[in-house]
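Complex record, two chains
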Amino acid sequence: MESVALSLTGPFPRSEELVQATREWDRGLRAEPEVQALYQREARRICELESALGFGWVTGGFLSWQDLFRPFTGHVAGLRVGPLSRWFETNTFFRRPIVEGPPAGDGGALLGELPLDVLREFSKPRKVILPGPYTFSGLVDNQTDLTRWELARLWSEVLAREVETLSRHGYQFFQLQEPLLVVDPPSREEEGNLLQVYAPLARPLASAASLVWTYFGDASSLLPLLVRLPVGGVGLDLSDTDPIRLREFPSGLTLGLGCLDPRTSLPEDPLDIARLVRELSERLRPASIHLGAGAPLDLLPWEPARRKLEVLRDASRILQSTGRRAHRSSLRQAPTPQASRRSSSFHPRRRRGRPTPRRAK
Amino acid sequence: MSGRRLFPTQEIGSLAKPRWLLEGLRGPALSEAARRELQEWRDRIDFVPVHDARYKKLLRGDVAEVGPRGIRDLGALFGLRFLESAGLDIVYDGEARRIEMYEFPLRQMTGFRFLGHVRSFDNRYYRKAACVEQVGLKAPYHTEEYEFVRTHARREIKVPVTGPYTLADWSYNEYYLARRPGWKGRRARREAQRDLILDLAEKALRPTLEDLVRAGAGLIQIDEPAAGTHPDEADLVVEGFNRATEGLSAKFVLHVCYSNYRSLFPAFLEMKRCQQFLWEFANRDTPEEDGYADLEIFREYDDGREVGVGVVDSHRDAIEPPELVQRRLWHAAKILGDPERVYVNPDCGLRTRSLEVAYAKLGNMVRGAQMARDRGR
């Protein structure tokens, strides 16, 4: 029987108070220590919310991140901050990283960007999101001679070191944000490249919970490829992925279901979510199910985002009351190639053919 | 083409609101810093006579005596003279009376409820509303502002008006989406969005534009910064624009920014009443990458309309030198094949820059345009 776990799947919105403070800080009307203290307080508030709603992990909401890449652009060699660019089909923008040399990190880029002191106050394990290598390499301005796949592979190595460092700081769940995988998917010829790109992450993720989280696009046709990545599971944005088209899923992996759509303030019906999750669970038989928002909730203001999380909690309760257990510990760790071969009959030919990790061409 | 001089300069819309305006509207008094700012800018751009009673009262910090209307009038005069004094050929009031380009129009309508702030980027936010009932209009909302500007302007006027597509895209669509049965997937969202856009165009934008045209507005800029957000919705941008402007006799131009402009074509060819596109380019122009390459689109589609070319970046403080502006203009003219089609503007509204930076950027933009004209002689 699959278990159901819940967590934040991306940055949470800043509160109205934090909005005001950061605006004033920009205008020189607030002192930095005051704003930093507020960041800490707001991160604590989100951890409390995550705990109260029964989430399996605390994140603190990633409130200080200006965009998915910014925590890295100041810390990782070879990167600098570039121009404003639209963040997929939203009215939010990110500073496109400019890659001027091979990215190289010491694994400490995120330490200063996460509210570790606050997270230590909570007994729950910690979760972090990371910019996945496919999305990173596809969105940056690559001014080096590296091919896109070489760059992606180097980025995986940067991430691998981050995972190792964060694991030592109590992080047990790593989620790779990969919207570009479903917005602009790799061609069939490039599928091998993608698998090779992810190879450096296999070992550090093997002892942690992990998901590749896709959003802003339909993941159904890409799912057979996604489940071959060396991570513990795959997350889908059900606002863009038609659930009817989901037919197969390997039994050894976690299925992430993005059940909340932050592009509308219209709250979802927990009964609808529970019904859909149950149906998918019975049809696909994943090892476990992970529920969250499809795209990150910071496309909403704070209060509507909080209400949506309550919907998720309510859906989880309905599932529990009808036989599903909500607990986090069974979120599957990244399968090693051997474990995959043992545990899954899904695409056995591909399992056999899992490529030996080597540098992408 | 008219007998207009080459490379006419224009603004896009918004300016940062001066401290004295914000504090004055909040009341009850002006801080020392706000009064100093008021005096410095008065001396610099002479936006109000030194003996003007409202100015003298504000300078004393006597906010209540001037009242919100008087303060707003001074704010509009400030924006207007700021742009004129920077040397622009086509001006407005810096949108001094508007909270901002999204919230202001929605507050003149019915059917929307504001939910809170969402981030646009970095520490920039906007207050986002949900459409919870069918769209309605309280009253046309730009005419009074336009008439004030017309009374005082010394240059040609262009009225910026936020377009229906952007108003819809920046809102949560509850009412129209809830009417769609079943799974709220991409198709349902698109259909609901079209319903919202067309209601905004017909019930809110069109009466507002009609009223403006009736009052004499001859040049109206429809702002659709969201136009490139969803590449498969370019046809909805066009439909909203066409529906809002149908049968109206004015020169309509369209501002779009931070978008993949290629995704807008060929749909934008059907925007027949649009005579000029004002696009952001400077932001994407780097030593390694030609930010103006998308101007090729006009040649590819044999589209001979005017183009307002963004030559200064609205989101960075670095001041572009006039020489760079000049180079960018002639580069754009070369791609378009005709300098007479090139208008000159910042990438976007300058409200995110300080007044000091905005003034310096506009000044250099004007100087760069003059250098480009001189070179063309």
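Note: Chain B touches chain A at residues 115-123, 125, 128, 130, 169-170, 172-174, 177-178, 183-186, 189, 226, 228-231, 258-260, 283-284, 286, 288-289, 315 (CB under 8 Å).
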